[in-house]
Structure formats: structure tokens, C-alpha cells
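Entry 14. Structure prediction run on the chain below.
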Amino acid sequence: MKRRSGSRAAIISVLLLGILIFGGAYYAWNTVVAIFEPVSPTGAGKTIPVEISQGESTSQIADDLQRKGLIRNALAFRIWARIKGLDTRLQAGVYKQLNTSMSISQIIDQLLNAQPDAIVVVIPEGWRIAQMAQRFGNAGLIKFNEQDFLRYTAHPDQFPGRNKYPILKLVPAGMSMEGLLFPASYQVPVNATAADVVGMMLQTMQDTIQQNHLDQVAKQHRLSVYQMLILASIVEREAVFPEDRGNIASVYWNRIYRPNAETVSLLDADPTVQYARDSLNPPKPPAPYWAPLNNDPANIAPNSPWNTYVRTGFPPTPICSPGLASMQAAAAPPQTDYYFFLAKKDGHSVFAKTLAEFQADKQKYLQ
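Output returned:
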């Protein structure tokens, strides 16, 4: 009887162990399957755009997808992405077709096989048109033509959408769109043309001016919108630290609207001379725009209307695309008696009321 009881107990133990193993395996399988399944049922999903940056890792993408609610488990995504080779074949850009009713496998397939709907292109503040053309030309936009971009911006009258943008009416005859293309991070449709890109940037500049009432503020300070943009572009290239923008703008405003015998309406702005020099002899890559001046500014491109060491008043156009902070400083310069400034070796600006003070500052900070 004892043997039979022992045998029966052993059989029960084996059965229980088998049930536990089967139950654990079943639970584990269901758990694994569940984390790969869509977050939402079919037909009830939500489309969520995802931006993937150049050089972003699969781990970063997985975390972003889980944070946005597109997948249940970032680790499962990383594992399946590695199996499918996503980490070596992914194209950066904005994907607008990903949906919460898609499984991890379907999302990976979408990222692998589809072109991004848009490509993120960042245009820094203080760039000139030629620099922008290169950035957009290298961005992977399939219909963008760099030469068309340069032609439209150099000759606004040839731009097919010119009547849609009142800001173009500000441009003097024969001048380019320099300074009118707002610097920002753009989600550019992958099939955008040069005309599309120019229009997008012009519209953003118009919206920025209107939303911040810069046209009204500039008028209160005796500036037209175009003059405000010219001044802002110089401030953009001069200011290293944000807190210096206002006083820099005041120096140039004073030289135009409160000229004295020491300044005689000359701006003496180095960036305008850099612009004049680089417009005559554009640098070839990898040489950069805006290289420091290596001679007396009055002797560099002396016949250029952009050389403000020899030409009084504002230059004929902006010299770059200013950002919002520089535009705000230019539209409403603070009231000062400053007519001179210099940049110390650490980049901070020092301001002076007279030439004698300026010369003393040069001895103090630059020797």
C-alpha cells in the first residue's frame, strides 16, 4: 500500500510540474505575443507622426515610439528591429503614416520600406542664401533643385509664387531675397521643389513679423520693415551673446538717426564687409563664409554698396537671415548714447559713447 501511495504521489507531482511548466510557458508565450501586438484594435488606431533624426539609434527610436504610444514594449522593438536590419537601413525624416493599430513588425516594415513623408532641415540664424541652398541641396529632397533655389532668390521677379508674398514688395529693384527667408527647423515634404521651399520660408518670415507686431514696433522707431531686417541681420552677425543684441542695435540706430561728427553716418560694420567680400569671391568648400577680415575693412571690396566703412547709411539689403531675437532688438533698440562697441576676446561686447572711450577699450581689452 505504501508503494502504491508513493507511486501515486510521484505521478501527481509530475503532473503538477507539467501543468506548472505548461502554464508558465503558455503565459510567457502570450506575454511575448502581446507585447508585439498593436496598441489599438484594427480600425480604432490613431496616426502619430514620428521624427527620426540623422544618426539616431534604434534604442532611441524604440523609446520614442513607446513614449508616443505606438508600441507596447521598446525592448521588443529593438530585438525585432535588429533581426530585420532596421538599424542599418533607416532613412532619417518625418514619418506621418505610423498608427497605433500597427504591430511592431508592421511599423518596422513601414520604416524600412517607405520614404519619409518629410525631411527635417535646420537653417541656423545668421546664414546667407548661398549657405541655405547648400543645406537644402544636401538634405535628400527628391525634387529640390539647388540652382532653381538660387535663381528664384536672386531674382524675385522670376519666382513663380511672388504674388502670394507681400514681403517681396519690400525688395529694391534688382536685389535678392537676402534676409527674407526665416531661419528655423523645417519639416520639408520629401517631394518639395525649390519654389515650395522658398515659399515656406517667406511665409514663415511674414508670419513671424505679423505675430510679433514687428512692423508696428519698427515704425515707432523710424524704421521700415525692410530697414528693420537690414539692421537685424547686422545685429545677428555681430552679437555673440544674447544680452548684447539690444545695445548693438542701438549703436547702429544712433549712427543712422543721431549721427555725429565722429561717425558721420558710417555704420563701420565688419559683417557687411564680410558679405561684400564673399559676394565678390564666394568661398569654395570647405572654406566657410564669414571668415574674419584680414585687412583694413575700408580696403576690402571698397566699391561694394555693402561696405559700410566707405558707404553711409544702411546697406542696400540685409546680409543674412536674422532670427526673432535680433529682429526684436532691431525693431526697438534701447535708448543709449553708444556709438562704438568692440567684442572682447571672450565674445562679450563693450560699448562706448566716444571715439576716445572706444580707443581706450581697445587698449584695455584687445592688447
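Residues 25-32 have pLDDT under 50 and may be disordered.
Filed with the rest of this week's runs.
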